[in-house]
Structures are given as C-alpha cells and as structure tokens.
Design goal:
Blueprint lengths: L1 H16 L26 H12 L3 H14 L4 H13 L18 H22 L6 E3 L2 E3 L6 E6 L4 E8 L2 E9 L2 E2 L16 E4 L4 E2 L10 E4 L5 H5 L8 E3 L11 E3 L3 E2 L2 H8 L8 E5 L4 E3 H23 L3 H5 L2 E7 L2 E2 H13 L4 E12 L6 E12 L3 E13 L2 E9 L1
Parallel strand pairs: 3-13, 6-11, 10-12, 15-20
Antiparallel strand pairs: 1-14, 2-17, 3-4, 4-5, 7-13, 8-9, 9-10, 15-16, 17-18, 18-19, 19-20
Length: 411
C-alpha cells in the first residue's frame, strides 16, 4: 500500500505548491486550539482521522472511521469513494487515490468524477489543517451597522465560507462551512461565464425550497450582484445565489456551479437562520486577508475619521474643502466631478448654515484587486431652508495615497 500512501503525499505537495503553508505532520490528528474554533463542524475531523489511519497502516480502523462518517453523512460521495478504496485494498494493493471507484480504466467520466472528489478531499483537509488564527479577523469587515447581526465572508481558494457575528461593530467568529464556487473559478465579468463574483454584496431575498427545483436543495438566498461598482466596471449577469444541493447529494466538487456559492443543505439551513434579507453583507474573496485586532482597529479608526472629516467639511459650506474628498473620476447619476462640485457650490451659496449627521455606519473593504471601501450610513441633513433624511452609500477609492469618493447615491 506504499503507492497509495505516496499518492496521498502527492496531494499534500499539491497543497504546498498552491501557496499554502502546511505542517509536516499533515496527516496526524489535529490538536485542540484556543477559541474560536474553525473547521470543526462537518465531516472534516472524521476525514482527517481516516487519512491518519491510512498513513499509519491502520486499514481496519480507517474503514471503521469511514463507516462512521457515512452514517453521519449518508450522501457524502467522497466518503463512499474512500470506503471503496479500503474494501478493494483487502483484495489487492492500491496505487492511486480513488481507485476503488473506477471500474474501467477507459471510463473517462468516472475518472473526472474521482478527480473532483480528490480535489474536494484536498480543500476540506486544507481548511481543517490550516485554520485561521483565532486572534485575527477578515480585513474587509471594518464596521457593521447596529442592525446587521451577522456577516458572511467567502474564501474561494479555500472553498470556505465564514460566518461572523456583530459584536459591538466588530466581527466575532461563529462558524465556517465548505462551499462550491463557479466551474471556471472566481472574478465574474459577464453573464454565463460560470465564474463567481468577487466583491461586497448583501442578501437580497430568501427563496424557500417550495419555490425551487430539487437542484437548489433546501433553499436559496440571492445576493446583490452586480453592485454599483460592478456596473461601473462593465460587469453584468444576474442570479448569483447562496443555495443548497440536490436531495441525493451531500456536497458538490469545489468548482461545480455556474457562479453561485453552494453549501450542503444542513449547512445552508444553519447559515440561513443568521441571514437577514437586505442587511447581511456577503463578501466574496479570492483569498481572505487577515488582520490582527490591533491592525483592524487602526484601519477602522482611520476610515471613520476620514468620514467625519468629510462630514465637517460639508457643514463648513466651504466647497473647495468639501471637493477635496472627491475623486476626479467621481460620478453620481448624471453628474461627473465638475458637475457635482458646481452643483454643491450653487447649493452652498443659498445656505446660512448646514448640519449633517452620519449614523449607523457600515464599512466593508473590497477583497478584490480594486481598492475601494463601501460605506453606508443614515444621513440626517438639516439647513436653514431644507431638511432631509436618507440612507446613503458611498464608494471610496485609494487615489494618489488618499481616500476619495468615486460614487455616491441613495442606498
């Protein structure tokens, strides 16, 4: 069985060449870590124990552990494939992972399915063995509004979804789940490209299973792709959802959707209890950037100070001070930068005083190549001749080392 174990080590090397730091004792059982815990729900702990038994020639223990995994997850195809390997190993030596699932060497369809399951094993174990540091948070969750109870962050490279709770505006880890992304990966650009979008979105609806075909599992939660920034960048498409799997399927391969983020039904049901239509942010990243709490707080405070400076400059009625917060590439509805500033100059000329408050602020940083922050707040504008309350959304970009507003409008 040395050839079989060699194949497992080859899988390990593939993880390392993908840019993932992996400890040498990859196949040993992980030791408990301090709270919060990542990747401890689902079949990952059982899967890790199975491979640990195989690595140490404990074939019968591996089979017993695999049977336990199947009892817990009856439709888990990866577990059934491993069981086929272990049963075949009783009759003859195995030379490749998944050999127990291939009956005919010329069966290319089955070979592709086995390759998908091999990839699923890799990403599940990668997430289990390389848990995020409990003292770090995703950089993108800079500020959650008071009424946003939870936030979702997706890492497409790791095929993982992380759920965070709003703890006084700061993200606190709750759970993480295996996910499937688009067949051709991430960075969606156009309708039908079978890619998952990268960016800052929010849940826009909840579709119960009664309104869907079995393909979508126990339900679906549409998200707001394309957002204002996507449209500005010429991206199009629609129908990007968080949804489940068919009733006879526990999970799908890491890259198997037409662009949606797909979870096991039991994971979707657990996640769905935390999602708020119109409120819950869904941030989809190629690879999550993690910050220590100190660095996160420093960046958050800096951006909050930036918004406060913009607010004060607006109240000053000094249009030149106000204008310095806006990018030359700014556009809002039909107005470009020059049109916007001239409009504000005319408005300010008729004001004796202005008071502006910006409350219930949320700030989410884009996880993609484009450096921007989405800021949403409740604006209360008062002046000597008009009062207005609205929910506003701004997109701030980094321009020549400074943050500037490039888009502004009603949320």
């Amino acid at each position: 069985m040395n050839a079989y174990r060699h194949t497992l080590r080859e899988m390990l090397r593939r993880l390392a060449t993908a840019g993932v730091t992996v400890v040498l004792a990859f196949w040993t059982v992980a030791q408990p870590i301090a709270q919060p815990r990542y990747s401890d729900s689902g079949p990952e702990p059982l899967l890790a124990r199975v491979f640990d038994h195989i690595e140490h020639n404990r074939w019968e223990q591996a089979l017993l552990q695999t049977d336990a995994m199947i009892r817990g997850y009856p439709n888990f195809r990866l577990a059934h494939l491993i069981r086929g390997d272990l049963l075949l190993a009783r009759a003859r030596p195995l030379t490749a992972f998944g050999q127990g699932g291939v009956r005919n060497a010329r069966d290319k369809v089955t070979e592709l399915r086995v390759a998908d399951l091999r990839e699923e094993a890799m990403v599940r174990l990668r997430a289990y063995r390389n848990k995020p540091n409990g003292g770090y948070v995703p950089r993108y969750l800079l500020q959650m509004r008071n009424d946003q109870k939870y936030a979702v962050v997706v890492d497409t490279q790791k095929s993982r979804l992380y759920l965070y709770q709003n703890h006084g505006g700061a993200p606190q880890f709750v759970a993480d789940y295996y996910i499937t992304q688009g067949k051709l990966g991430a960075e969606k650009m156009r309708e039908g490209d079978q890619r998952t979008p990268i960016g800052v979105y929010h849940v826009t609806g909840s579709l119960p299973r009664q309104k869907l075909t079995d393909f979508y599992g126990t339900g679906a939660f549409p998200i707001s792709y394309p957002n204002d920034w996507d449209r500005r960048m010429g991206r199009n498409g629609h129908g990007i959802w968080l949804h489940g799997t068919p009733s006879d399927t526990f999970s799908r391969p890491p890259k198997a959707s037409d662009g949606c983020v797909v979870l096991a039904n039991e994971d979707l049901d657990a996640l769905g209890r935390s999602l708020q239509v119109g409120l819950t942010p869904v941030i989809i990243s190629n690879s999550i950037e993690w910050l220590s709490l100190d660095d996160w707080q420093a960046e958050r405070n800096s951006l909050l100070a930036m918004i406060e400076e913009w607010r004060k400059d607006w109240e000053s009625r000094d249009t030149d001070r106000y204008a310095r917060h806006y990018s030359r590439k700014f556009r809002s509805d039909s107005l470009d930068y020059q049109g916007w500033i001239e409009h504000k100059r005319q408005v300010n000329a008729g004001k004796a005083w202005i008071k502006v408050t910006a409350g219930n602020v949320s700030m989410f940083r884009n996880p993609g190549k484009e450096e921007y922050v989405v800021v949403t707040f409740e604006q209360d504008y008062r002046s000597n001749n008009i009062n207005n309350v609205m929910k506003k959304r701004q997109y701030w970009i980094k321009e020549d080392g400074s943050w500037k507003i490039i888009h502004e409008g009603a949320a």
